[in-house]
Amino acid sequence: MASAAVAAPAKAATRTRTGIPSWVWALPPVAVLGTVFLYPLGLVVQQSFRPDTGGTSARAYADVFASTAFREALGTTVWLALGSTVGCLVLGFVLAVVIAFVPFPGGKAVAKFIDVFLSFPSFLITLALLFVYGTVGMANGLWTGATGAAEGPFQFLTTPWGVLLAEITYFTPFVMRPLLAAFSGIDTGQLEVASSLGARPARIVRQIVLPEALPALAAGGSLVLVLCLNEFGIVLFTGAKGVTTLPMLVYGKAILESDYPGACVVAVVNISISVGFYGLYRVVSRRVGA
Amino acid sequence: MSSGLRFDRVSVAYGGTTVLDSLDLTVEPGEVMALLGPSGSGKTTALRAVAGFVRPAAGRVFIGDRDVTGLPPHRRGIGMVVQQYALFPHMRVEDNVAFGLKAQKAPKDEIRGRVAEALEMTGMAAYARRHPRELSGGQQQRVAIARALAIRPGVLLLDEPLSALDARLRSGMLSELARLHRELPHVSILYVTHDQVEALTLADRIAVMDKARLQDVGTPRELYRAPRTEFTASFVGNANLLPVTVGSGGVDFSGTELKVPTRDAARGTTATLCVRPHLVGLGAGPNALTGSVIEVQWRGATHRLYIEVAGHRVMADLRELRQPPALGDEITVHFGPEDAVLLSAGVTPERSAPVAVRETVGAADQGSRDG
Question: Is this structure's pTM higher than 0.90?
């Protein structure tokens, strides 16, 4: 969009060979974007200012902001998203370093698998975790089978920690993909020279690999952050009743309570947080020159 | 720390392919040893075995008296400079140079001085605060050299360090390297190159490599004046390689008697006579050869003539001629008996057949373009 907007004035003046001003070509994408994305978005915002009682007011905002459920959901959403992002960055960086720089048999296959993993639906991972750690899952089954206890020790899956585990498991490849691409661009000569100068592997990772991977880390991290803020499937599928995030709240208000204005308010807040975090990322990344 | 370097029957294999075949070579403390050879000759593999990036399948590598064969690269204490500089792009020049000192936990107050010293030595002191991307190729290579020297290594490995520079910069850097070596007389240098000029200029001794094997070792003068093999003759400098039959007190070249020293070559055996093109003179004289001119190349300071003599091409590099001969002219050239070397007879029978055309493939200025 940006490049089209920049290029348009210059070309419009000269006109194209067919005589059609070039800004005309920008119309179809704008039209599509408007009808399928911006218009519904506008409707959501509009609806949030239209209480069921009629008229236009910010009543719904006051009500929602005043409710404890909303404030808790807001807090849960943000800390889960931040926690998952940090977890994904750390785990993704370590795994990517191993895959990219430690030669081991099957390393290429693992890198390929990362691509496949990205195409999995998020609930699949959650289901897998349920099978392993769920109330009647394998881990608890082994425990009850071995000890004869009525319940296994693994009951964390329906807590926020379960959601965190599922999100980290599912989103880590989203960090690894750009990292592996960045690592493949690092000159192995640099790593070799660094080690011949006396640097151990840990120092090389910290001082050579990490700085060069920062842009990729930022890109992967911001992507995961936004995805986590809006994640719905994982939270729903872990069956975590105690864990209400903003998307869950929207679902609850709209479908279960038929409180459309309230749902729209939460949606607007959710969108603002996503956009806000993304904007923050852009500002910060421009500062550091990434 | 003066140390030297020794390869003791070092072999390296990738998969089933032997890329370095039992190399025996000693680099004395303070010596510059050039590993000269075409690509795929094993010279870079030898360097990487010293640095610790390849594990030999057999043999030992010694730095000084220390067997480093099993040591990881970071414990070998080696300075290394590679073709593509490999500077750390996000670090300033001074941090690049300080990297090795910090990695080796040098005292903090010492680092600054040694970085300054290394940058001073390579003439890059004014650029300490720059980033690598703000420097030209030649400047980046100087920083890479400063970075390698800052840790005061006993052994310096240079892997085609000038190949990425253009010709003019290259000759400048060549004299820079020679100066650095004079200033650091205790550092042993292993210099990998495919460029004969670099090897001849810089090296105390040259090890000629081909097909994963060491072919020849000697001082540049020995290898140039009295090569032992055809490969050395054609790779270290240009050479006319003429198939001859050894006679008494001379050789027979397609029916022409040539008076050259035959040393202990047995009479009647076939051999190869090596004559450097610039030692061939125009006109009659001892060991005269007559033939027709098939190509004339003007090279500024010299003319190179290709003359067909009895079905073989003979190259002559002559000081620029006022009136060069025309194609097809019959001319006579000659060379002094002391300027010809008889290469050991019958060593490489497969090479004697295409000898006469070899110079068109590679020998003409091969150093600068062979990759």
Answer: no
